[in-house]
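Service request form, structural biology core

Requester: graduate student, group of Dr. S.
Request type: structure prediction, single chain
Budget code: on file
Notes: please return the result as structure tokens.

Sequence provided:
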Amino acid sequence: MLEIYAGKTALKTIKEQGFKQELFTSFLGASGGPKWFVLYCLDRYLFGEFFKDRTQTLNLIGSSAGSFRSSCFAQNDPLAAIERLATSYSETTYSANADAAEITGKARELLNGVFGSTGGQEIIDNPVFKAHFIVAKSKGLTASENKIIQGAGLLSSYLLNRIDRRLLKSQYERFIYQPANSSLNINDSYGFKTTKIAFTPENIKDALLASGSIPMVMEGIRNIQNSPKGMYRDGGIIDYHFDFNVKNEGLILYPHFSSNPKAGWFDKNLTRKVSPENYDKIVMICPSQEFVNSLPYNKIPDRTDFTKMDSDTRIHYWKSVLADTEKLADVFSSFVDNQAVNDIKRF
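Core staff response, request fulfilled:
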């Protein structure tokens, strides 16, 4: 039901030292909307058991849904926070023909519920689990809230990306919102300009909302406090499933819903692969196709469920998936207990 992949260095390290939480210094959380539901109980195991008594820093690096998950893991009670996120997200409903303003408003309500009264400050102050929200600052046509103009900009992005991913630098910049004392460094061979902004109580919610602000679906977030003026949108535009090198001493744990990661949002339907060098220290945990086939409708939840299903059907389906993921947590727990490192596949 579960597949585990590792890059060359990661696999060598694990075979020499065993599979233990101390090996990991970073954690990745990808974009993908409700696809993350398939990782729900695995997340609960990782931050309720595997990393429970951790004392060394773990950098939580996320874009879009991955940022929302990271915001839960960095709160004082990560299990309660991730449960609030799963419950609120799965039970969200919209009016017929909901516009960007309504969808954005519902997302802000969800965020407020996940944070509660103290969550933002807990994330800022957490000495061990350090959340990092990736956001894409949009330039030119893609910064417009006019659907026609924004659509033209996105079409241009699609065409530029087909030619060379590096050409997207003319339209987007990467911003990473993080704790003021974060030491995270990344190396991006594609050369996207990367700016780091420290969390404050005034910008942390807008930064997180921006990280999940899907173009053409939600409103962008304009002029985030303590940041350069401009329009900020979904971090998955640049970093959908990640294709950069995290510069640190340890390994990187990456629970993901697919064993075929794509660098950016515009790569989703391309055959372009991520760089193997950037996955050298990564351990990726994925549900197997067998597990996916066992789910209702034989698939992982996705955003199209909002339009293809009525609310009651969708909510029942999504909650069934959330419950079924307990099987993945059990399998991974057994893998860790038995140190079945020979089951790991080379990425």
